[in-house]
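Anyone have tokens for Alanine--glyoxylate aminotransferase family protein? Sequence:
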Amino acid sequence: MTIRSFNPPPRSLMGPGPADVHPRVLAALARPTIGHLDPAFVGMMDELKTLLRQTFRTQNALTMPVSAPGSAGMELCFVNLVEPGDEVVVCINGVFGGRMKENVERAGGKPIVVQGTWGRAVDPEQVESALRQHPKARILAFVHAETSTGVSSDAKALAAIARQHDCLTIVDTVTSLGGSPVEVDAWGLDAVYSGSQKCLSCTPGLAPVTFSERSLEKVRDRKSKVQSWFLDLNLVMGYWSGEQKRTYHHTAPVNALYALHESLVMLSEEGLEQAWQRHRHHHLALRAGLEALGLELMVPESERLPQLNSVSVPAGVDEAALRARLLSRYNLEIGAGLGDLAGKIWRIGLMGYSSRPANILLCISAFASELGAMGHNTDASAAISAARALLDQDADCR
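Reply: yep, here.
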């Protein structure tokens, strides 16, 4: 067998991630590779930190991209902040809250689970009750934007409760950063991680993180070594801190960092608040089209993520078969449900460069055609008209 160069098929990525990568970001990947300690590269690293602070809305000195995907950003937070025996309150209302619990256990901590309902936001009253019942807990961990369900929880309210109980917060913003408000300083968040492949319009493989000074004090005061050498903040800080001088820790993914830099420059050019508005506006247009097809969104409106839409599968429709048809006939990727929601929902992403009118109209017309072929009564013309009516309301979001 002769193996030749791989040329991927063209796809429109409207699943839970990765999202479409902007052509400017793809072009940045092709720029000449230089050394990861080259003065020019070190200068670019400083710019990356500045751009990430703007995106996280923070002044935290330790704000950087981890040289690994969002899951490593999650693990970085837990292995540095959780020591053996620590009690950690973990909110679970989807798959990724469950992964937080797993990280607490692997770090030797004792997870105290606040079990929520899949498809609903974390309940602040349940969190308050758990922290009252476990006064030794010093960390509250929760997912701001639960990718498995499309739910947004009230990070500001949860962080306020944590502060009242002298707890640090570990917060997952993998799906929210760049697509909906994330206010690290204003909300008082402590250890926050994200991913490059969603609302930032970048390639997978990097995990932006930011740490408050309060959280770094806990890292410095550890009584035991961090269990991971690669993710030990005491070592990583030496590479990302300082002015024009870095202590060698690892060979950074140079070209991937070019790509993240370019994506953040683009986000700055658009304006962060304008990007939030674009995602919200396009969500409303997609919702209008889907509802005109007789489809329902699972999450209550006040708790929905605009960039990740969970759509209930109608009775009698084979959800996996429909996804397969969308991929083979339209080169359109959407996501399936996970865990308790497997087979019950589709997850349609409107993240970063994927959040644009052409994708919305493609998705609605493809759904209309394939649902009709499966015997579901649809009116494609009405659905497209409903979406266009919303899209035409705000030319700045097109």
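The chain has 14 helices and 14 strands.
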